[in-house]
Amino acid sequence: MESIKIKIALMGLGSAGTRHAIALSHFPEITIVSVVDGKKKNSYDLLQNKYKTLLAANYYDDDDKMFTQEYFDAIVVSADPISTMGEKPTLLLKYDPKPTLWERPLGFLPEHTANLSRVARGTKHSIINFDRYSVLKTVYQKLKSKEIDLGEIKTFNAFISLSIPSYSEKPWRYEQTMKLPVHLFDHIIDTFYYLDIPKVQSTKAISSSMQIENRTIDSSWAVTVKLQNGAVGCINAIQYQSSKEYLHQLANTVIIGTNGGLKVELDKAKFISNAGLEINMNINDESNEPFIEEATSELTKYLISEEGYTENEKTKAEALSIVKCNYDWVQSLLSEKHITTLGTIESNKYCLEVSNLIVASSIL
Predict the structure, then answer these.
(1) pTM of the model
(2) Fewer CB atoms inside 10 Å of the end CB: C or N, the chain?
C-alpha cells in the first residue's frame, strides 16, 4: 500500500523557487501538486523537460486559480520582498491557513513581518535561512558542546558580495527603498543571531552609489558595528551588475574572542585557539539518505548549467544547504515534535531591524 504523501504547492519559479522545486521533488514524503508564476512558464517547462521535476504538478499563471482549483497541505512562497510585504499575505488571508515556508527578506521594514503573523492563524510559518545548513550548523554544534570556545567576543569582520542581473530580470533589486543592507546583510546578521553572538547595539556606515540603467544603486558599504557586550567589528559589502546572480562564493566571516578565532565560509570553517590548536570543519550530510545526495547532485548540476556557477566545493555546499533546509521543513510537516533550524518571523524581524539601523546610520 502506497504511503500518503504531503501535497505541496509552490508560489514563484524564479531563481530561488526553482532551486526549492528541484530539492523538494526528490523527497519521498511529499509530492508537488501545483506551481504558480505568471512570468516563469519557461522555468516550469525547463524543470519538466530537462530535470524531470514537477511531473505531477499543474502549472498556473494566476494565484487565485491555483488556490481555488487545487488541494494542497502546505506551500512554499518564493516571492520578492515587495510582494511578500503586501500582495502575498493579502492573497493568503483569503484562503484557509496552511503551513508555509517563505523566502526572505520579509519586506524591507521590521513592521512588514506583522503581515506574515496575521496570515499564520495558528499554522507554522518558517523562513528559509539555508546558510544555517552549511558548515555553520557544525560550528553551532561545536560551540554549544564547548568543543570550540571563543571566550568573550571582542571583534569580528564579515564580507559579502552580490551580483545583480538587469532591471528587466529583477526590478525589485533596483527599488530605491531596497538598500543593500536590507536584502543582503540578513545573511550576516542571521549568522550572528544563529550562533548566539551578542545582539547589535549601534552602527555607523559609509556607502557609495553608482548609476545602472538610469537608476542610482548603492554599490558598496563599510559598516562599523558595536555589539551589546561592547565588541566592535566591521561588515563590508559590494554589489555590481552581471548577467547572473552570485552570492556566496566570496562571503566569509571572522569572529575573534578572548580564547581564539573562528573563520566561516559556506563550505568550511576553522577555529584556532590562542595556544595554536586548530579545528577544521566541513559541511556534511548527517542524514546519509540517498535521496539527499541525489537532490544535491541534481541541484548542483542546475546551478552550474543554468545559473553559471563554477564546479567547486562552494557550489556543492550551496546546493546541499538548500536541500537540507527544505528537508528540515518537510520533517516539521511530518511531526509537530520536530525542532527545525529554520528561521522564524521573529529572527527575520531582528535582521530587518539591524539592516534599517545600518541604513539610518549611513553617510552617502
Answers:
(1) 0.94
(2) N
